[in-house]
């Protein structure tokens, strides 16, 4: 009898812990939704100013495509701010169709593969050489031709990290949506719940089920 109670409590704590982890991931994802396009915009602006010295290059097609698609989700949310978090399940559906296919395949995967050297030499010569011979980790003791190149390199590195984090979280949430870990819209309507961080942590069980 005691073993069953302990087992039940252990399972309950495990579920609660997993909800806190998922809630943390959602919080991080929502933060990246806002920060990713801002960092990309900062990179584009910085590269444009530094590019005037003919030191670094900006691939307009890749960068602008990434910026436009990365800006789509926060812009959609801001258009209906009162339901920005409640509509997250629909946002994930949009991510699956346009954001996931367009952004991850056309920009993230290409850009990440380019920066990690997983592309043919011809493409690497055209796209990888955006900061010349400057190391990707932007060492502070490197002899930069001009001081603002260090800032451009740091913004580029930060943008690269955000791209990977955002991509991985998108994939995780898509897998969760497909596997049923995330609550469906029908479940939320039936339980009269909104899809937000509190719902994820507390679960969507009603009072009778909790008893």
Automatic annotation (TrEMBL):
Q: Which domain of life is it from?
A: Eukaryota
Membrane-spanning ranges: 20-49, 61-79, 100-118, 161-182
Q: Which UniProt keywords apply?
A: Membrane, Transmembrane, Transmembrane helix
What is this protein's name?
Answer: 5417_t:CDS:1
Source organism: Funneliformis caledonium
